[in-house]
Amino acid sequence: MTDLDVGTGATVDDAALEDLGPVDYVVLEWPDRQPAGEVAPHLLALSDSGTIRILDIAIVAKDADGSLRAIDIGDLDGAAAAFNAFGDASSGLLDFGDLQEASKALEPGTCAAVIVWENRWAAPVARAMRESGGQLVASGRIPVQALLASLDALEATT
């Protein structure tokens, strides 16, 4: 039997995996040595409402020389200490190799939260797709900056 530790002391077994929603990862970058604390309460609210489930979270810093180091969530202070609420979120899905890969997107002298979450809001659709023999064959995101640039370009031509 496959068990996935979701960091809350609970595990998800094979039967519960059938109800799993789509899983995404994000890399959120800040221009300093630790994240700003304004984001954590929003993540917590989404988690508490059941919209998402944080499966894994890691905080990393990319030094000026490009080297990467992991930051223990418990070591965050000030406003960033709000991330301590996710200190137990460790499914084992993220390893240091994943963090190194994510760091390629980071600028030197920044820090980032690398987060893996389940989109619980989409779980009923995902389950229905699996039960009907369907599968997700493509997925993507349109960054807000790209959307705004496209709308600006469209407006300029009209």
What does this structure look like?
Residues 1-10 have low confidence and may be disordered. The longest helix has 14 residues, at 144-157. The strands form 2 sheets. The protein has a 4-stranded antiparallel beta sheet with strand order 3-6-4-5. A two-stranded antiparallel sheet has the order 1-2. It starts with a strand and ends with a helix. The chain has 158 residues and is an alpha+beta fold. 28% of the residues lie in helices and 23% in strands. A hairpin with a 5-residue loop joins strand 4 and strand 5.
Write the layout of secondary structure elements.
Layout: E1 4-5, E2 11-12, H1 14-17, E3 23-30, H2 39-48, E4 52-62, E5 68-71, H3 96-103, E6 110-119, H4 123-131, H5 144-157
Antiparallel strand pairs: 1-2, 3-6, 4-5, 4-6
Quick structural summary:
The chain is of the alpha+beta class.
Jot down its keywords.
single chain; 158 residues; alpha+beta; two-stranded antiparallel ribbon; 5 helices; 6 strands; disordered N terminus
What is the mean pLDDT? 85
Distance between the termini: 59 Å
Instruction: Please tell me what the overall shape is.
Output: globular
Main beta-sheet annotation = 4 strands, antiparallel
Element order: H for helix, E for strand: EEHEHEEHEHH
